[in-house]
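Milestone M4 deliverable, item 7.
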Amino acid sequence: MQSRQPRALVLSRPHPYSRLRQLLFMFGLLAATILLLAPPVPAQEKIIKAHGISTFGDLKYGPDFKHFDYVNPNAPKGGEFSTWAFGTFDSLTPYILKGQAASLSTIFFDSLMVGTADEPDAMYGLVAKSIEYPENRQWVIFNMRPEARFSDGSPLTAEDVVFSFHVLFDKGRPTYKVILSDVEKVEALGKYKVKFTFRKGANTRELPMTVAGLPIFSKAYYKDRDFARSTLEPPLGSGPYMLEKVSPGKTVVYKRRDDYWASGLPVNVGQNNYDRIRIEYYADYTAAFEGFKGGDYNYREEYLSKLWGTAYNFPAVKKGWVKVEQIPDRNPSGTQGFWFNLRRDKFKDIRVREALGMVFNFEWSNKALFYGIYKRTDSFWENSDLQATGMPSPEELALLEPLRKYLPESVFTKPAYSPPVSKPTKLDRRILRKAGKLLDAAGWKIVNGVRTNAKGEKLTVEFLNDSPAFERIMNPYIENLKRLGVVATLRNIDNAQQIEREKNFDFDIVVRRYTMSLTPGIELRGMFSSKTANLPGSNNIAGIANPAIDALIEKIEQAKSRKELNTAVKALDRSLRALHIWVPQWYNPYHNIAYLDVFSRPSKPAPFAVGELGFWWYDKAKADRLRAAGAF
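Output delivered:
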């Protein structure tokens, strides 16, 4: 297995409708943040007015650009894209804690600006025609397009933007209160002009982009509806798709709007090409694969190494009807692993966490289970230049030294932590002995074959799992833990139970994967900040609450240059790894994809996205040939 597929989302990476949606996918949120009023502008203050904004440096695309370089501006519209999602759903409201939202249900909503698939830190106007801000980014004004419309024909105004901020803050997922905490005020300066003021002393580098990515809701629509209520009622949005069909827990179909107000804008040219997007839900990975073989859907990214290594030789592949490809992935490979719940006393001691992590034998798993396809992850920014290596640089030490009392000494005295390399046998006794010494030192002695502390309590760990496909990976790990004297068990539950227990942090160890940004910033609060450690539904799944980590996140948000950012991220990566909050698993620097040969895509690939949902298109000529050949 390469990576755990995002629940209820089958895209390999967040679709780049906006930079913020990409950032908030890592939160499990997929959109958003804020809008506010600013204090009077000093006359001498330089005001930047532009069609876009970038974290660092100049924008790639000028004010008169016609379309992004990686799209086909003449891509035809039509056909259906279909894929699969794991688990189930009971809601079309993805921004609240209640319910499990359907995959891609953020597609209903536009935002002020959107990101690109060839710049990691830039956004361009969608609902906003232009943006104004001072050099210190203490406030931002968005000049909106009067032609923007919701799907019922009503105008999209600054009042809707203001409403969207407040309803997300007051009724959205609890994490929004953290993300939006640096917004001081939001005000509509006119029908189509909205201004955001940020809290004095806030790190404002990314805040204009954060607020630019907010989903925009209709104030009038929610006048007599409760935003916090989980519902399958199709929401009123202004985006390129609307709901066509929903079968609760089974199927959701989105239909492209012929009257979409923004279809001709440069940020949308060559995109949103399918008439329909259909998503089929499965409770089992293998059943989903059989559904693909049987023609139930036409696009699949493969996450099971066993299937990728052995099963893509079925007749449709041999006949050329189904294409099988590996596409290089230039994004960080993500932070997939077994995550400890640090809220539980038994995981408080760092030596316990390190010992438990040591006996996961990746080398044996890769040989015996993964067909040698994968590489071991050791960094939170694996497969990128943001990964910490070797000893800390002088620049990193300048950030780390003031935080020394909150960090393990190994941060300063040893190279960045990497998991031990095991022998490719199921049990490496050398590593088992080292792990045992760590547990002994932590006070967990062997008593009648079981690790027991001075209070007589046994060291128990339970793995929570909703995927049968992961059992073959977890069970050998559990066997090694038992040999270490740990009472380790596997609890298999359904997807709905898993989601609820994770929301309420009711677990010992779970598997999770985060997609990390090449320009990380405010989204790190959701994963690693003390402020989100105990917020229900937050993505700080481990419950890490460490002043050093908080301070390094702040340094990342404050970085004024790419060099400063890279240094701060490496310092954070080094520190997180030394804290042993997870057991890193594996990665593949490719997207493993398979699809019915009814699609075409631009000849120039986008560096940071596959683009299957964004800028591929349904090729009728190819489809006609396959239909004539009896493929479907």
